[in-house]
């Protein structure tokens, strides 16, 4: 789920994006891609991220699945989709200017500064896609999904869209470290932030 707000800070937009990925880690960048609407208009989240220069990402989980589905509906620009989906808000703490709403019950959240949009032309009306890239400046992780100080993915039970209207939920993971190279990579990746107060917010430096 990606979120943003409109030029009116009191009107909030949220939408799920199945094409989401991290791109690098030092500093961390993430991306999501948004196809055009059936009327060939660009998605609200894309417009808002470009206009405000920021957005937040919230992990979509099994417990949030119904709200995720509701937030996928096409509604008029300016409708508060948090309210439509029955989602409680909390707000960004590291982004400059007006705070950006986040999903309070999501166990993992990123605060992102907008970086750029790569627009890929395709067949109308919905084929053209905007690939939005943002730099992560803060990461929120709820304490109850940590194991030995690390994010435990199985505790978050994230959902993933697999194509069509089919989804999967992750309840089990396994570790497989690349011989020799793996440990040095783990040490490098694990040294790119500072903890602010508790394990719940990491500011990226």
TrEMBL record:
InterPro entries: Flavin_Rdtase-like_dom, Split_barrel_FMN-bd. Residues 1-153 form the Flavin reductase like domain. Pfam families: Flavin_Reduct. GO terms for molecular function: FMN binding. PANTHER family: BLR2425 PROTEIN, FLAVIN REDUCTASE LIKE DOMAIN-CONTAINING PROTEIN. This is Flavin reductase like domain-containing protein.
